[in-house]
Design brief:
The chain is of the alpha+beta class. The protein is built from 3 helices and 3 strands; from the N terminus they run αβααββ. It has one domain: Orthogonal Bundle (Arc Repressor Mutant, subunit A), CATH 1.10.10. It has a 3-stranded antiparallel sheet. The N and C termini lie far apart (29 Å).
Length: 70
């Protein structure tokens, strides 16, 4: 994967979530072509700034994390 600025990654995440109603962590990661460590940090930042919401899926025993725009 090519190296990108974090701001560009954040913009890509917001664009993808604007197009789709709700996506899992892995779906967002694949659509933005971002490594999981960077993705985790970006998702945490967007959650803290109240730009996205997170909810747990219905899976048992390990529900997936689903993200959407506020």
């Amino acid at each position: 994967m090519k190296r990108r600025d974090t701001i560009l990654i954040l913009e890509d995440i917001l664009k993808v979530l604007k197009q789709e109603k709700e996506l899992s962590f892995n779906q967002v990661q694949k659509k933005t072509s971002t490594q999981w460590r960077t993705m985790k940090k970006c998702i945490d930042f967007l959650s803290k700034t109240n730009l996205i919401t997170e909810r747990r899926g219905d899976g048992v025993p390990n529900p997936e994390r689903l993200f959407s725009l506020r």
